[in-house]
Amino acid sequence: EPPSAGAAMGCSLSSKKAAGAVETTLSPQAARAEPTLLALAQPGEQRPLSTNQFKQKVCSTKPQTVPLQVKALTYNLQWWSLYDQRSGNDGSATSLIRAAAPDVMGLQECEDVTRVMIEGGLHADYTAVQGPHSLAIVFKRAEWEMAGEGHSVVAVDMEEQFFSSRSVMWVRLVHKESKKTIFFVNHHGPLRVNSGGRHGGPATAENIVRSIHCNAMPGEGVIMVGTFNAQVGSQTIRELEGYLPRASTGVAQDGVDHFFSQLQMLGEENLGNGGSDHDALAATFVA
After folding, report:
1. Among 28, 25, 233, CA closest to 139
2. Mutual angle of helices 51-58 and 201-215, in 10-degree steps
3. Measured over all CA atoms, what is the biggest interatomic distance in the chain, rounded to whole angstroms?
4. CA-to-CA distance for 217 and 197, rounded, in angstroms?
5. What is the pTM of this model?
6. Inter-residue contact 96 to 270 (CB < 8 Å)
7. What phi and psi, each to the nearest 5 degrees, are found at residue 79?
């Protein structure tokens, strides 16, 4: 958990189109040196977002169409060890990613997604978006087009285990053939584990779902992945489950890596750790 730069809270901080072979985009806000902590929603500062409000917009459904399978991956790269100390470990993580061939992936502890793309030969087929706080999202360029992206600060580490503020980042992906849209969210949660960070689990969960509610469009399939630094049964996870179903959970680090989605999950797979202290996890959903 290396320290990293922060970004200001916002409903939708940027929107870009994706193009180019090894393109990596970074929102101007994501490059700021210091987080704007006062922008975080404090407990009791605003009226809570009800589950009905959230579900009426985010979990609404479109008329039945031909099903589209979407393979998503979440992977915490443990950058300080795998890349800073072991120089990529002969491409152990990227070999795993390449073999899995997901449609879209959320990477945590990824300080330089361009390095990951080039190392694994992924740049020929994937476009990457670098987010704040060592987050990144990567998607298959031939099948998907990015229609927007953004991020929000949602939490701050506890003082006694402080590394940084914590964000969610998102991309809106349009499937080129079917025109179906996926709203894909990546998150790396605050420390201590299960604390919910400085403002607690309910506030962190509220900030996450509010960011999704602000930016997702009705009828989009929402898939949220990440290292939440919160286990099943923690306040953060219990609160999130009230808004989006938890689809899958890993076993590494006592189960802090999760998938959330209102979409049906067809299958899940633990791909191994590839040299990290977290496992790469894959799940296939029907949009």
Report:
1. 25
2. 30
3. 51
4. 29
5. 0.85
6. no
7. -55, -45
Q: Is the peptide bond before 192 cis (omega within 30 degrees of 0)?
A: yes
Which DSSP string corresponds to 242-284?
Answer: TTS-EEEE--GGGT-EEEEESSEEEEEEE---TTSSS--EEEE
* 22 burial level (CB within 10 Å; 0-12, 13-18, 19+): middle
Q: Does the pLDDT at position 85 exceed 90? A: yes
- Containing 179, the helix (H) or strand (E) segment is none
Instruction: Give just the sign of the alpha carbon dihedral 176, 177, 182, 188.
Output: negative
**Would you say 108 and 188 are in contact if contact means Cβ atoms under 8 Å apart?**
yes
pLDDT for 29: 39
Q: What is the pLDDT of residues 62-78, one digit of tens each?
A: 656 789 999 999 999 99
Give SS3 for 134.
coil
- Choose among 122, 124, 11: nearest CA to 136: 122
DSSP string across 76-89: E--HIIIIIITTTG
Amino acid at 146: M
Describe the strand order of the beta sheet including 165-175 as a list of residue ranges: 144-156, 165-175, 181-188, 221-227, 257-261, 246-249
Q: Tens digits of per-residue pLDDT, 250-273?
A: 999 999 999 999 999 999 999 999
How many beta carbons lie within 10 A of that of residue 64, not counting itself? 6
DSSP H helices, 120-200, are none
| Placement of tokens 């994706």 in the chain | 18
216 with 57: CB under 8 angstroms? Answer: yes
* Cβ–Cβ < 8 Å for 156, 128: no
pLDDT in tens, 118-149: 998 999 999 999 999 999 999 999 999 999 99
Q: Which helix (H) or strand (E) holds 53?
A: helix 51-58
Identify residue 204 by its one-letter amino acid code. Answer: T
Q: Give 3-state DSSP helix, strand, coil % of the chain, rounded to 5.
A: 25, 30, 45
SS3 category, 185: strand
